[in-house]
Each structure stands twice: as structure tokens, then as C-alpha cells.
Amino acid sequence: MTLDPELKKQLQHLDGVEADWDIMLAGHTSLRVGGPVSCLLRPLNLAGLQTAVQVLNQNRHPFFILGRGTNLLVQDEGTRAVAISLEKGFSQVECIDPSGRVKAGAGLRLNRLLRFCLQQGFSGLEFIAGIPGSVGGAMRMNAGTHAGEMADVCDAVYVLLANGNIEKLMGAKLRFSYRRLELPPAAVVLEVELLLTPSSRDEIRRRIRSLLKVRQEKQPWQLPSAGSVFKNPPGDFAGRLIEAVGLKGVRIGDAQISPKHANFIVNRGQARASDIHALIQLAQEKVSQEFGVQLELEIELVGNHHNS
Ligand SMILES: Cc1cc2nc3c(=O)[nH]c(=O)nc-3n(C[C@H](O)[C@H](O)[C@H](O)COP(=O)(O)OP(=O)(O)OC[C@H]3O[C@@H](n4cnc5c(N)ncnc54)[C@H](O)[C@@H]3O)c2cc1C
After folding, report:
1. CA 31–ligand 1 middle distance (angstroms)
2. Is the confidence at residue 305, as pLDDT, over 90?
3. What residue numbers bound the domain in which 195 lies?
4. Which residues line ligand 1 (CB under 6 A)?
């Protein structure tokens, strides 16, 4: 997992970029599991991010954007890829049109964005109430619920492309699907423009409270998790299928299929990524055997055997 010394030297001296070395990703994911990365870069501005990406690409070294780590399962062995966090330099938010247009940085936390929209009296984003994570992660995942998803409110996305150029994607270039936004290879979401609707603050607040109440009733919000583990198969619910095959509450090590919601895997203390993998496989096998349905992961795997 050690970094090539030449590359390390270059990364240590990047203008406008802070770096942490040899850190455990367990401290940066909502599941509280995950092994080491040799380097976590925190660009403080666009120029810093551009140089960091350029250096990594020139060295053909893989990297990934670490949002708030709320949709990730990082391997116990960690990953060779360098992690980049946009939290420090890309967390701005502004109203760009009083009719309801908001521009937000990719590193901004979703709850801050929602609070900003409430203060402005802009409705449309209430569905993200209770979804942890960053604006960039929510865009990439097309985060949402039955009450709405990012695709409904997103008008444009600014991305940094692998060749260093910045492109504004809008209209047909925004290819959203269920829990996914297709981006050009290795593109980094920098900022998004959202189209919302002016509304009364009381009404927005009421909607947020009622969505949060349902979430607290149905989901195991007191224990570390990464939200829904599997995508819902067409016309059905992953949680219903997992419960129907008798796996609700089943535990491997400190990882458990939540007794409250079977599509959540919770960490009851010292769970390892391998325990969570074992539960994932068990659920996939049983549901496939009994219902002939292949459960697809909603969470993303990070590690040397996977995409990063
Ligand atoms: C308790 C709980 C409840 C949840 N409920 C929901 C829910 O109701 N609906 C839902 O959709 N999700 C839910 N989630 C999952 C998660 O919160 C969302 O997917 C969230 O949007 C992920 O954001 P993040 O910043 O944590 O992204 P991360 O988990 O850090 O990253 C997710 C992916 O996005 C990529 N990424 C992040 N930032 C960028 C960027 N700037 N540019 C390019 N790629 C980027 C990462 O590389 C990774 O591939 C829940 C999670 C938890 C823990």
C-alpha cells in the first residue's frame, strides 16, 4: 500500500493541497469499516485539485473522490488508490436566481444544503432530509427516495474531466438512472446548479419533519451503516426479499442484517468489511435461490479487488 517515493514527494509539495498520510478509511466512512489509504488529499481550491489530478494521471496512479463515505464499503485491506476529499475547498453555496436557482459545491454536506434552501424558502430538496453525504456523492449516486431524487432538481453539473478541462453538463448530457449519474471516465463533480421552487418556510419545514419521522421509525439510524445495501429490484423491495428468506437480524461477527430494516447492514461494534461481504453474499445467494432475483449492490465497493 506504500506510495512510490517519487510520487509521494510530488504530492507533498502541491500548492493549495493538504495531505494526510497512511490513514484508516474506517474513520471516514459511515459504516466505520475499511483499511488504509496511503494518502488523502484535500485540495483547497480548483487549481490545487487540477494539479493533484494531473500529477496522479501523469504517474498513472489511481484515485477516487471520497465524499462523506456514506455509501461505501471499503475493503479491510484498504486501497492503493489515493483518496481526494473536496470538503475543504468546495463547500460553497449561493442563490444565483431568486426564482429558485441554487449553486452548490460538491464538498458541501447535504444537511447544510437543505438548511440553506429552507432559509431561502426554496422547496424541492426536502427528499434529502436524513440522507447523509455530500453534494458530489449525492449527484454521483442520484441519491433519493420515493419522495424524489437528485435528477428531479438538478439543472447542470460542472465536472473536471480527466484531460484537465472543465465542462458544464446539462440537458441530455445528464444521464441519470436509478441511483446513478453516468459521468465521463474519472470525471470529478465540482459544482451543481439546482432548480427549486419558492415556497413557504413553514410548509418546507413541515415536509422535512414528516420525512425525518418516517425515516426514524423505519431505519436503524442509531447504528453505523451505509444506508440501503441493495437496489430495489423492479417492482419489489430488496428488504422484503431478504426478510422473506429469513435473514433479518442474522449476524456475522459484529455485522448484522438490521432487525429493523433488512436492506440495512449495521456495524454493532467491531465489524470487518469481510463480515459485511459475507452477509451480502448470503443475502444474494438465498434471494437468488428462493426468488430467482439477483440483488444488485447499491453501495459501492472500494478496494484493490474492486474499482479503486
Ligand atoms: C443512514 C443512511 C441513510 C441513507 N439513506 C439514503 C437514501 O434514502 N437514499 C439514497 O439515495 N442514499 C442513502 N444513503 C446513501 C448515501 O448517503 C448517499 O448515496 C450519498 O449521496 C452518498 O454521498 P457521499 O458524499 O457520502 O458519497 P461517498 O459514499 O463518499 O461516495 C459515493 C460515490 O460517489 C463518488 N463521489 C463522491 N463525490 C464525488 C464527486 N465530487 N465527483 C465524482 N464522484 C464523487 C465516490 O467516488 C463514490 O463512487 C444513506 C446512507 C446512510 C448511512
Report:
1. 12
2. no
3. 93-217
4. 30, 64-72, 86, 106, 131-134, 136-138, 140-141, 143-145, 179, 188-189, 221, 225-227, 300
The pLDDT score that the predictor gives to residue 2 is 78
Residue 7, Cα to own-chain centre: how many angstroms? 27
Catalytically active residues, by annotation:
179, 228, 298
Quick one: pLDDT at residue 307? Answer: 47
Q: Where are the beta strands (DSSP E) in 47-174?
A: 63-65, 72-74, 82-84, 93-97, 101-105, 122-123, 144-145, 148-149, 154-160, 166-170
User: Are residues 203 and 98 part of one domain?
Assistant: yes
Structurally, how many domains does the chain consist of? Answer: 3
Buried b (16+ CB within 10 A) or exposed e, 170-179: eeeebebeeb
- State the Cα–Cα distance between residues 295 and 298, nearest whole angstrom: 9
The phi-psi region of residue 96 (left if phi > 0; otherwise alpha if psi is between -120 and 50; otherwise beta) is alpha
For 81-140, write each residue's pLDDT tens digit: 999 999 999 999 999 999 999 999 999 999 999 999 999 999 999 999 999 999 999 999
| Nearest protein Cα to ligand 1, atom 34 | 137
* Boundary-marking domain end, from 48, 67, 84: 84
